[in-house]
From TrEMBL:
The family this protein is said to belong to: Belongs to the NDK family.
Catalytic site positions: H118 (pros-phosphohistidine intermediate)
Positions that bind ATP: K12, F60, R88, T94, R105, N115
All copies of domain Nucleoside diphosphate kinase-like, residue ranges: 4-140
Lineage, top ranks: Eukaryota, Fungi, Dikarya, Basidiomycota, Agaricomycotina
Record's protein name: Nucleoside diphosphate kinase
Covered range of the whole protein: 1 to 150 of 465
Length: 150
């Protein structure tokens, strides 16, 4: 059954450097998701280590943190039906070489170490990630579209 959810989507430093912020936001807007939080952050390695704590110990972990701390990211929360699963499918497979054309990674990336954007992999991780990146809380507003589709 479809569920109304929030997911944490982050445009990584390579997505920002390549001027893909607008294109990525447009995809989520056009799909019908509602933007409920957005900010640009140059995150510290400590903040990123916490975000990726499940990957501590992986051989690529130090390189991942260095890459993620190399420039600002765009942190966002998107809301809508099945936002977590649909957000992941819009991103495509982690390794862009395996991402289908039409997905964000499949259209814009080639290397797993520069894969443009992150999306929460479960509702539970989304809750944790939203609290980690938006400790100040996020806005609440009613979208006119909600009257039509929910
Ligand atoms: P993300 O958290 O960024 O959305 O990615 P994911 O769930 O699809 O993949 P995950 O396994 O959690 O990996 C997190 C990020 O680490 C980098 N990575 N590099 N060099 C490598 O083999 C390798 N494997 C993963 C990627 O940036 C990946 O998105």
């Amino acid at each position: 059954m479809s569920k109304f959810e929030q997911t944490y989507i982050m445009i990584k430093p390579d997505g920002v450097q390549r001027n893909l912020v607008g294109a990525i936001i447009a995809r989520f807007e056009q799909r019908g998701f509602k933007l409920v939080a957005l900010k640009m952050v140059h995150a510290t390695p400590e903040h990123l280590e916490k975000h990726y704590e499940d990957l501590k110990g992986k051989p690529f972990f130090p390189g991942l943190i260095k890459y993620m701390a190399s420039g600002p990211v765009v942190a966002m929360v998107w809301e809508g039906l099945d936002a977590v699963k649909t957000g992941r499918s819009m991103l495509g497979a982690t390794n862009p070489l395996a991402s289908a054309p039409g997905t964000i990674r499949g259209d814009y990336a080639l290397a797993v170490g520069r894969n443009i954007a992150h999306g929460s992999d479960s509702v539970e991780s989304a809750k944790k990630e939203i609290a980690h990146w938006f400790p100040e809380g996020i806005v609440q507003y009613r979208s006119l579209l909600e009257d039509v589709i929910f």
